[in-house]
Structures are given as structure tokens and as C-alpha cells.
Design brief:
Layout (H helix, E strand, L loop, with lengths): L18 E6 L14 H9 L5 E2 L4 E2 L5 E6 L6 H13 L6 E6 L5 H12 L3 E6 L19 H7 L3 E9 L4 H9 L3 E4 H7 L1 H11 L5 E6 L21 H11 L3 E7 L9 H6 L1
Parallel strand pairs: 1-4, 1-5, 5-10, 6-7, 6-9, 7-8, 9-10
Antiparallel strand pairs: 2-3
Helix pairs in contact: 2-3, 3-4, 6-7
The structure holds manganese (II) ion (2 copies).
One manganese (II) ion (MN) binds next to loops.
């Protein structure tokens, strides 16, 4: 009679869970539209719209053991949030695949760092993003959402890195990417080559079998996902992103989805995220 408003069909217990859903309502370093701290609950609410049966994969979510742990209390200090996220990951069962709902994109580096430590193995990292996020510092902090990929590249154990969907960067980020041989694919390349050819090329760089996938929702075109912190036109289609997930999800040991700003949404971005 009474329903907890977690992610739809995530009614399993933590012990023995196949997947764990964790909300990370942190948005202290946002630079344009704020409010992604409300993202996790907006995604959960939108998830109630969908059937538990996923026709394309012939999987019923109700048959899986998915546990929604709720949201972490992360405060407003980025350094505190970073440490708290890592502490939280250490408490998760090793066999479960964690799915993190942001929050701004700055949640991803501590997740990758925490997973590398927890699993004691190297990870490949695939980021879907309109932005390079390769700044050394932004808004007086190295923990900014604009520094996400730069921080990931610094993590020992984040062995290989690819980003897809790029169409925005500073001149300094462009130089940094070129000098350091960062493996980046623009949204134009996806449009011209097709997502499968881009993925074939990306897979040559994603050398570790175990993969972490980070989806900054602004990778999608604002026509499909308008309610994000820093919308950028000329983006990926939902079909591109779906294809990435279909081809790589079996290798994923963790996944995050970030930058949903519900105050700017009429519901469509939250539905896409869910
Ligand atoms: Mn980002
Ligand atoms: Mn972005």
C-alpha cells in the first residue's frame, strides 16, 4: 500500500545485490545553471513511468536484485564530498555494480578513485561529455565540474581514458589534450563516422577489461536533454548514447549519470536520464 520512492523496481536488499543505486546530490561548483543536487530524486520519480520489462534486452528489472540506498549526505565543501563518496564506495558489496545519480559531474573522479581502490585493479574510463573538463582549476577549485576529466587522468589505476561527444573547450584544454594524447571523439565525428565506427576506434584505447562509464547528460543535444548545467548545441542523439551503453555495459563495473538540473526541465531530461 505504501511505496518508498526509490528508483523503480529497486526493491532489493544490499546483501546479494546485483546493482546498487546511490544518489549524490552535490552541486556546489556549478558555473551556469545550478540545482543538480535535485537530480537523483527527479530521476527516481521519472523512473516510475517505465515498464520494468526492458524489451530490447529481454530483461525484467523486477527479476534483478537492485537496491536503492538513497542519497549520500555530501554537504557543500567539494573536498569533503570527495572523501565522503570514497568512504561510501568502500562500504558497498564488491559484487554489486554501483549506479550513481548526480549531482554535478565533479562526483566522477572520487568514484573512479574509490572503485580502483576497492577492486584493487586498473580501470578503463569512458566519459560521454560535451566538454573536455580538462581544466587544472576552475572557480578557484581543483574539484570543479570543469576539471572532471583532468582529475580522472591523474588517478593511478585509471589506466585508459576515452571521451566521446566533445564540442566545447578552452584553448588551454585543447593544448593539454593534444600534448597528453587524450583520446577524444567530437560529436561531429560521431555524426560523420557513425557511433559504431567511433566505438570501434575507442575500444582500441579502452585497454582494461573492467570499464567505468560516466555520462554527463550534456553530451546529448539540448533538444533531447535541455535541463543540464551547461547545455551545448550540436550534441549526440539518444540513439548514440543507447548504442554506447548496449555495446559496453557488460564490461561496466560502475556507471554514473550527472548534471541533470530539474528546475529547467519539463520532465523530458529526467525521463531520458531514467
Ligand atoms: Mn562534464
Ligand atoms: Mn559537460
Amino acid at each position: 500500500m505504501f511505496q518508498k520512492c526509490g528508483f523503480a523496481d529497486a526493491s532489493g536488499e544490499l546483501e546479494g545485490a546485483d546493482y546498487v543505486v546511490i544518489g549524490l546530490p552535490f552541486d556546489s561548483t556549478t558555473s551556469f545553471r545550478s540545482g543538480s543536487r535535485d537530480g537523483p530524486n527527479a530521476i527516481r520519480l521519472a523512473s516510475l513511468n517505465f515498464e520494468s520489462y526492458e524489451r530490447d534486452c529481454d530483461v525484467d528489472l523486477a527479476d534483478l536484485n537492485i537496491c536503492d540506498l538513497g542519497n549520500m549526505e555530501l554537504g557543500s565543501d567539494p573536498a569533503y564530498a570527495w572523501e565522503t563518496i570514497k568512504e561510501g564506495i568502500a562500504l558497498l558489496p564488491k559484487s554489486a555494480v554501483p549506479v550513481f545519480l548526480g549531482g554535478e559531474h565533479s562526483i566522477s573522479p572520487p568514484i573512479v578513485s574509490g572503485l580502483v581502490q576497492k577492486r584493487q585493479c586498473d580501470l578503463s574510463v569512458l566519459v560521454l561529455d560535451a566538454h573536455m573538463d580538462l581544466r587544472e582549476e576552475y572557480g578557484c577549485t581543483r574539484f570543479s565540474h570543469a576539471c572532471t576529466s583532468r582529475r580522472i587522468l591523474e588517478i593511478e589505476g585509471a589506466r585508459s581514458y576515452v571521451s566521446i561527444g566533445i564540442r566545447s573547450c578552452s584553448k588551454e584544454e585543447h593544448s593539454f589534450a593534444a600534448e597528453n594524447g587524450a583520446c577524444l571523439f567530437t560529436s561531429r565525428e560521431v555524426r560523420e563516422m557513425g557511433i559504431d565506427s567511433v566505438l570501434d576506434a575507442a575500444l582500441e584505447s579502452l585497454s582494461c577489461e573492467q570499464l567505468y562509464i560516466s555520462l554527463d547528460l550534456d553530451a546529448l543535444d539540448p533538444a533531447y536533454a535541455p535541463a543540464v548545467g551547461n547545455p551545448e548545441p550540436f550534441g549526440l542523439t539518444p540513439w548514440d548514447v543507447k548504442r554506447v551503453i548496449e555495446r559496453l555495459a557488460t564490461r561496466a563495473v560502475g556507471f554514473d549519470i550527472s548534471e541533470l538540473t530539474p528546475a529547467y526541465d519539463r520532465g523530458e531530461t529526467a525521463l531520458m536520464a531514467a
